[in-house]
Amino acid sequence: MHVVATAGHVDHGKSTLVRALTGAEPDRLPAEQRRGLSIELGYAWTELGGHDVAFVDVPGHERFVATTLAGLGPVPAVMFVVAADDPWMPQAEEHLAALDALGVSHGVLVVTRADLADPGPTLALARRRLAATSLAGVPEVVVSGRTGEGLDRLRSALAGMIPTLAEPDPAAPVRLWLDRAFHVRGTGTVVTGTLQAGTLRVGDRLAWHEEQVRIRGLQSLERPVETVSGVARVALALGGHVPDGLDRESVLVTPGAFGDISVVDVAVAGDPPGRPLLHVGATATSVQVRPLADGYARLRLERPLPLVVGDRVLLRDPGARTVWGVDVLALDPAPLRRRGAAARRAAELADGPFEPPVAVVDEPEQRTPALTPRLSEAAAIIREHLAGFDAPDATTLADLGLDAADLAALGADGELLRLDARTVMLPGSDERAVEVLATLPAPFTTSQARQALGTSRRVVLPLLTYLDRTGRTVRLADDTRRMRAR
Q1: Could you confirm whether the keyword Protein biosynthesis appears in this record (predicted)?
Q2: Does residue 222 sit in the same domain as residue 157?
Q3: Within the chain, which residues score under 50 in pLDDT?
Q4: Do the domain assignments include residue 480?
Q5: Which residues 6+ apart lie within 8 Å of 377 measured at CB?
Q6: Which one, 15, 32, 398, 426, has the greatest CB density within 10 A?
């Protein structure tokens, strides 16, 4: 399945277009149908070119921009809608700014209501607006949802776009941003969202902070399924105890795969205010911005979120209708206590690759012992038996008597490359991996990286995470990656 969001000003025909393409009504609420105005996110789907395509129909009114961003955030492609009989309007500009800040580059520009006015001037203006953004050069189609003119051309344009979308990794850990949560009589709590990567199965357990929930039932495209992989629209019926507070804007994740992050260092173009809103996935929270220097800042989140290095998120000033695109560079970095620490930190972030001084989860001790003959001998044995992009498994490490603190000491001394508390490789493996990964088409999946490096999933996951953390690769929203530009 592939997922496409709508975008554009209120009353420019987004819902009418989705209705014409799918035959389904995206406006679910009686108030929406009565007023002809989308208030909540709407969903519908159809088949295009042999692919199932789900549409997320977002509100166009300025009062519902937070809901709009919840729909746009997890979605990799957009149908940008402008009406032929209306000039370029403020919400079109705001939606375009958000899409550009998120880096969305796949889409179709659609001029609607061609039966009411000459679409030429509107098309030319919209083309100029998009030309300076990530959506420059996308296909253009003129349609009328009322008469059906141009709908076949739009279907063809959308079908042609689908093969250009990145294929997410079905084996990636799940991070499901919830955009709806409700109670169904006889079923219990149901939550929905856009699954960007990974795989869900009936019976799986997912984490919400310290709590876990079980997937009792699973639907996609309004059909019961036993398993579904991203990208997909999904509905989960949760079994057992459902924690209080689990609702829309919550995030369900693979247990143990993500941390609850409260502070991040980021790259940001521009000068956001001191307390904007941060939007990521379908979630928003207030943040405190501490400028560092030269396009870098530290964000302190009002509530922790499962962020990862490489996330692309939005900062928004609701009063000024202004957005900033932000790249997450480091998680829970060390405090800035000394005079000049902010400027030095900005220089570290700019110089990259870097490894932020963060605590290692589950490491039994925070010690760095001097390199003893035992450790030197163990390192020599490991180096002798490793080849290529390999890493000793847990049994080998146990046989050598090496614990997490020993691996930390070997990494600090340069005897081995330490990726995390339990994984080490030959020194220089990271640089060699960067050379290999740079030859892959961008973005690339975890599976493509594993095959190119000729290693196992056990090794490639911590290696890619290490490259994310040290600034060589960027993890994207769909769990694919690209090399960081230098």
Answers
A1: yes
A2: no
A3: 27-40, 60-64, 353-370
A4: no
A5: none
A6: 15
